[in-house]
Amino acid sequence: SWRWNGSTISLNLGVIWEMSMETVRRTDGDEVPVSGSTGGNSAPILPRDPPAPCPLSFGQQRLWFLEQLFPNNPVYNVPRAVRMTGALDVEALRRTLDAIVDRHEAIRTTFAVVDGELRQVVAPSLTVALPVDDLSGLPGEERDAEAHRLVAEAARRPFDLEQGPLLRAKLLKLGEEEHILVLTMHHIITDGRSSEIFNREMEAVYEAFSTGKPSPLPDLPIQYADYAIWQRRAMQGEALKSELAYWRRRLDGAPSVLELPADRPRPTAPTSRGARQRWSLSKPLTEALKALSRREGVTLFMTLLAAFDVLLHRYTGQEDIVVGVSINGRTRVETEGLIGFFLNMLPMRTDHSGDPSFRELLGRVREIALGAYAHQDLPFDRLLEELRPERGVRHLPLFQVMLGLQNPAGFTMVRPGWKRDLVDVYTETTKFDISLLLLEVAEGLQLCFEYDTDLFDASTIERMAGHFQVLLEGIVADPTRRISALPLLTDGERHRLLVEWNDTKKGYPADKCIHQLFEAQVERTPEAVAVVSEDMELTYRELNCRANQLSHHLKGLGVGPEVLVGICMERSLEMIIGLLGILKAGGAYVPLDPTYPKERISLMLEDIQTPVLLTQKKVLGRLLDVTAIQNPKSKLDNLVGVCLDTDWEAIARESEENPASGVTASNLAYVIYTSGSTGRPKGAQIIHDSLLNLVFWHQRAFAVTAADRATQLAGPGFDAAVWELWPYLTAGASVHLSDEANRITPESLRDWLVTQGITICFLPTVLTQGIMALEWPPETALRVLLTGGDTLHHKPPPALPFMVVNNYGPTESTVVATSGPVLTDEHPNRLPPIGRPIANTQ
Questions:
Q1: Is 589 exposed, middle or buried (0-12, 13-18, 19+ CB in 10 A)?
Q2: Minimal CB count within 10 Å: which of 279, 346, 514, 624?
Q3: pLDDT digits (tens, 9 = 90+) for 484-511
């Protein structure tokens, strides 16, 4: 219900968007589908008894309600600007506009509530003001800039549907024989064909008036209001049931949203902010598309619709695609000469399942289009009222993408020495996520992509246009190819993606393993702090000595190159000693998170067949029901347990010297088990060489030095723990372990990072999103916050005093495969990308 001037009007508000403009034509120029429609009702359209107000057409009704929901929005303004070169009779032009307004009631119509009902109110007469702004005295560039500003201002000025008038005119004088005529109408009284009619009639009437002759145009037999009454009567009873039955079958189970990959999340409410990009297809490509259409027995528009469907399918991965197609809606011969809003929209739903060839898909589109044309009489607004499709506040129901084929609507020269050209006018608004308008000119097809700037960047639409052209070229080259195999990338994109972005070769030392790099750092900074855990710390010398003692102990138990050693410990100094000791013995460590279920740990132990398991007394008692494993001399199923806390007295008797293990960079460094999302968990085997590449890339990318204070927060079974240790312990930095209390809230974690003077930190995305939402003291030492592991949904505010870097990498690729900074000064609502390949990664 809508309250209007004290009256209540009830109407379903399902339809909340515009249907685009323009006429669909066959390749031979004939309109589609005047002959294909049943007309809905064979009764003639008869003139009503004037001047009684009459109901709105279904399309007008929708636009009126939209104006009430979103007032003062220029999205439904239809501007037109014409540059006229030659002598101009301004008075004749004024009389011409008045004559056209007098001829077409739609232009004299306003909309109001009459006796509680929303009605069209036709004024008996209307004089159109034609103010003249004289810019001829301005310098050339200043004149053109002011003309552009005035045209844009006129195009964007809102209308009052109740007060009117719904046509505005303005004349800009640029010189004695150069003018720009600006005409702006509200869409509720016009459409694309109406603009053509207006242009044609203005040419004829102006030619007559400027030479002292009367208007050559005959009276119209009917008016738009007569059509509105006829439409209301036609769309009821059996005609309505038949049309609705067809569309219900066609749209049953249709997806509610086309999930195009946007640059930014969809806003909570539409703003209608838009932009345009134009793209031209060559004459040879256009002719090839026409030839393909003739061979396949379809119209050029059907071929372009099928190609656009493929583009959307490839962008979204969805097999069920619905695209809105605009048609002129003039299925009755009586309406051909009328100015008014006749436009209708047909939802074209295409099934891409089975990966068909383009030829097969084109056949599907042909049948879909012919069926839709045969049932086009049902106004789309009426369809939505009946179907009540799923809709959200953020997106339009049924479809969010539109395709239309436009016709050139230029002017002819009315006399020698005269020239008239259309001036491009745009209100910078849009009604859909993306509208693709096609215009055929002598040089070939011109594409106009109109898009929602809340969702897409200009660069994204430019790439889409390039993809569409490459796709069309691939289609005409071989329409028998499956749609998944049709080309999409431009040559430049393919080179950039496969060559430039993969040109990541970077040399790094591979003559030493990770533990040997650590040993070299011990020689350089033996007394520097290596690891800190609460109130305990180890220097590089102390950590090296203890790891050496453990390594000698492990070698005595048979650990060497390619031997897998399980380590099931809580995050602690002992855990780091254990990891380093395994590497120094030449083995490869396999972290088993003590918080895992017993069954998972048992499965992993069975899989790796390790001879040794490093653990702690408290972990052993909690997780393993094997008391004998506490004794390193006893074995159970060939497994020796070593508890680094209770067994350390024996381990401490071993040598503190660096062991010789014989391990090389081609040997295993560790095995990390995946989450098991595909069933049985799998162990990803990583060699020293891969780990060395990660370490040296990390140190270069983030300028790691001995002055850095890093964190180790990840669980031991998560491969991020690898990244938190070795780039720092091979560079002389200190690694700080936080207890769980500091991770309870983002605030407590922030405070710990600040008090510890942490300079570089890795956090999983959930924690990162919480951390980034906080205020940070300016004195924080943190300079780099690394994140990864899941989609980052929150952008940091510009005030963060540190850099945020988003990372991605499967466990199998050694922790990180791609990395990229999260920018704070651009695209505040965009989801951050995962970056580009790291060194030596493709």
A1: buried
A2: 279
A3: 999 999 999 999 989 999 999 999 999 9
